[in-house]
Structure formats: C-alpha cells, structure tokens
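Supplementary notes for students who missed Thursday's class. We covered one full example, reproduced here. Read the sequence, then the structure, then the short commentary at the end.
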Amino acid sequence: MGKAKPTKYAILSLLSLEPMSGYDMKKLIDVSLVHFWSESYGQLYPTLRALESEKLVTSRRERGSGKPDRIVYTITRKGRWELKNWLRQPADIPRVRYELLLKLFVGSMLPVESNAEQIRLQRRELAHGLSKFRLYRKMVMEDGVDPMHRVYFLLTIRHGEMVARARIRWCDEALKILGEVAKESPDE
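Structure (token representation):
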C-alpha cells in the first residue's frame, strides 16, 4: 500500500461519520480531536480536491441563505473501501516534538527558576486540558451518539486523559528535582 498520507485518511475517517464541509471538518478536529490530531485548512482543501479526483469522495454545493455557499463532501463506496484497508494497517509509532523538553535539554543555560517556570506553565495547560476531557466524555455520553462510535470515542478520550495525567505527574516530579537543584546551587 505504500506510506499512507495521514491527512487523506483523517478526512476519510471524518467523512465516514457523516457528510461535512472542509470548515466542519476543521471545527470537529479543533474541538474533538485536538488532543491527538491536527490539520490546517492548507492541508484539508488540497487533499479534499485530490480525494475527489481519486473518486474517494464526492461533493455538492449547498446554497446558504444569507451565508456563502458550502461545499459538502461525502465519502464514496471506493473511499470506504480505501479507509477500511488503511484501518487494517499497523499504526505508526508517533514521533513527538515537545518544545519544553528541547528547552530543558539545554536548560543549564538559564537559571533553575526560569526552567521551573516553563514547567509550571506547561502543568497549568495540561491541567486545563485534562478538565476538557470531562466535557468530551459528557458530550459522547449524550443520546444520539451511536453506541459503537461511543466505545471508540471513549477510548480516544481515555488515552488523552492518561497522557495528560502522566505529563502532569512528570511536571510535579521535575519541579521537585529542580527545587532540590536550586537548594544545592543557591547562587543562580
């Protein structure tokens, strides 16, 4: 099958749930998938055009009353087949880029307190993100979500919760270690 293009399969995945516009996809990604996936409009729209030329999706123009027209995309039978083939392939192990860890890697260039402040900021963001998972869980548990979709949606939410909690624990441990370092080197 070759190396999969993730945006292609992200779009097909979203369209397997329901027809939607590029704007709808971006909104869903930014609200519901943000803890594990991101796409830009610059990735979505060219990929949608390519998917349409491959006959994996179709589009139709919806007239907007007082609003601009929308182009709504629908996955085709061929698109579902392509998506199912991709779903059967082993998932790549993600290569992560944590800016905070890069900064800490050379953290000895700054005072301990500057590095500790970076960690405290990160911890606050993680705690805020963790609180969002309760909202996501509530949304998924509401009536109207297909029970089979619910199981898989909840698995992704649980992953996000566990990763956030682990990173928060790491922040707490790192702050403790830096506190000890600061006591040993009070001249900084």
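Commentary. The domain at 6-87 is CATH 1.10.10.10 (Arc Repressor Mutant, subunit A). The beta strands are 20-21, 57-62, 70-75. If anything here is unclear, bring it to office hours.
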